[in-house]
């Protein structure tokens, strides 16, 4: 049985990926603060490194999936240092640290690294500077890493999903529209992961988009 080590496997896209891969016979180990086999704060780089090194002493890894992520879409001048650090630590630093710790093990198994980035990593949008910076960094990391480890037999894939109907939008001021053709489902991305794992060659970079464009702005009512 092959082992999948992943972050963000407790909800949204990650939960769908986990369910799909477990149905295919993979053993999935999640990293996170809740519903995780490796309990760790992804924003604590030192603690994360220590926890993974301990786990790898008695385990191997065949597939590494980076799926944890947070978003903010606000004027950059309004963002605090704490919020900037949260996004950078979660969306970029954690995947870099996890990959660094696991890379030798992945070379031994000729494994696969898969990062869930974002369509925002491929374009430039208003109020997305911080989020795009983290996801573009993750995407470019994957493309560079493939050139570094391809001789060792390690495959590297970055998946760039467009708007996907998940709790990601719960804290944002917008969400996918009601039109079913304007958003992706988490299961679609899970099937994309399954596809790239089963592909004989290497899918280094893939963008998945809905057929139509549709964004709904949320309306908030004052209480009291």
List the SSEs and their pairings.
Layout: E1 3-7, H1 12-23, E2 27-32, E3 38-39, H2 45-56, E4 63-66, H3 81-109, E5 112-116, H4 129-149, E6 155-161, E7 174-176, H5 186-198, E8 205-208, E9 215-217
Helix pairs in contact: 1-5, 2-3, 3-4
Could you describe the 3D structure shown?
The protein is α/β, with parallel strands linked by helices. It has a single domain, classed as NAD(P)-binding Rossmann-like Domain (Rossmann fold, 3-Layer(aba) Sandwich), CATH 3.40.50.720. Helices cover about 40% and strands about 15% of the residues. It is built from 5 helices and 9 strands, in the order βαββαβαβαββαββ. A 7-stranded parallel sheet has the order 3-2-1-4-5-6-8, with helices on both faces. Strands 7-9 form a two-stranded antiparallel ribbon. Helix 1 packs across helix 5, helix 2 runs parallel beside helix 3 and helix 3 runs parallel beside helix 4. The protein starts with a strand and ends in a 7-residue tail after the last strand. The mean pLDDT is about 95. Pfam families: adh_short. Belongs to the short-chain dehydrogenases/reductases (SDR) family. This is SDR family oxidoreductase.
């Amino acid at each position: 049985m092959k082992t999948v080590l992943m972050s963000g496997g407790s909800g949204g896209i990650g939960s769908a990926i986990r369910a799909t891969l477990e149905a295919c016979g993979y053993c999935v180990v999640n990293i996170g603060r809740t519903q995780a086999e490796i309990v760790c704060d992804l924003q604590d780089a030192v603690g994360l490194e220590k926890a993974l090194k301990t786990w790898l002493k008695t385990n191997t890894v065949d597939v590494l999936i980076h799926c944890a992520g947070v978003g903010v879409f606000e004027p950059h001048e309004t963002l605090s240092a704490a919020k900037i650090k949260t996004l950078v630590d979660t969306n970029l630093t954690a995947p870099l640290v996890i990959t660094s710790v696991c890379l030798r093990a992945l070379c031994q198994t000729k494994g696969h690294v898969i990062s869930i980035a974002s369509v925002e990593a491929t374009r430039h949008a208003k109020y997305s500077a911080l989020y795009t910076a983290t996801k573009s960094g993750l995407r470019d990391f994957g493309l560079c890493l493939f050139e570094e480890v391809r001789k060792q037999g390690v495959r590297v894939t970055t998946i760039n999903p467009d708007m996907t109907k998940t709790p990601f939008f719960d804290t944002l001021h917008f969400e996918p529209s009601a039109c079913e053709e304007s958003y992706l489902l988490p299961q679609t991305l899970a099937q994309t992961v399954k596809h790239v794992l089963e592909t004989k060659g290497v899918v280094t970079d893939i963008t998945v988009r809905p057929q139509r464009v549709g964004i709904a702005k949320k309306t908030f009512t004052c209480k009291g």
